[in-house]
Amino acid sequence: xxxxxxxxxxxxxxxxxxxxxxxxxxxxxxxxxxxxxxxxxxxxxxxxxxxxxxxxxxxxxxxxxxxxxxxxxxxxxxxxxxxxxxxxxxxxxxxxxxxxxxxxxxxxxxxxxxxxxxxxxxxxxxxxxxxxxxxxxxxxxxxxxxxxxxxxxxxxxxxxxxxxxxxxxxxxxxxxxxxxxxxxxxxxxxxxxxxxxxxxxxxxxxxxxxxxxxxxxxxxxxxxxxxxxxxxxxxxxxxxxxxxxxxxxxxxxxxxxxxxxxxxxxxxxxxxxxxxxxxxxxxxxxxxx
Length: 289
Description:
Elements: H1 2-6, H2 21-32, E1 33-34, E2 39-48, E3 54-59, E4 83-85, H3 87-100, E5 105-109, H4 117-129, E6 135-140, H5 143-147, H6 149-158, E7 162-168, H7 173-180, H8 188-201, E8 210-214, H9 224-237, H10 240-243, E9 246-247, H11 254-262, H12 278-286
Parallel strand pairs: 3-5, 5-6, 6-7, 7-8, 8-9
Antiparallel strand pairs: 1-2, 2-3, 2-4
């Protein structure tokens, strides 16, 4: 493990050497997952204001190094941050937060939740039996779901309360490598995850059980050409993906600014313009405007 830690990717710099996202996922799991009791590392449990209020377990560890990422240094130094929580203990913390604040949603944030598969599955078993928590929002970069269709099947076929949000980071292999630090050969994996979800859950469940998000509304971080390529990839899977595509911009969180600077990217603030959302453009086209 000490050799793995010494070579562990931290954050993207100008002279960055790309890594394999799947290999990093497995290495990260060795740090943040504990096999004997299916525990994983968290730094905190609290209620966040997003989604109208949601009980949140702030986890540790990710398999991408996005330059616009907002989360704490625990992403880059998972061996230093957090404590191990069993699925039962993590559930109890989330359930307690939800009950005290009279909210009915839960999630894992600050990390890639699909790491530590045994932990997530066991945690969702507890969530499924909880009468107060009505929905668990699973936010993912799609790497593990892209290489493991059975994982997707387990999530959708076993847990009715799960709503999945899959976030795309780039529109071309070269931009994926530049923005995430992962090799451009990994670019296709999140799109395969979308195909796996369509095959397992069906496109008719789009918006009911899952949707796709993308960092694609911000001209400072995505060119017209890259955005066009991204949207085309989604259309090639199913054009209906655009009707519910959640498009994002880079927010000036402290860690986002630090990571952008380390990668040699200086964005102008405040953001002065954004692209027209793809869903609006498609709706206008369908209405014949």
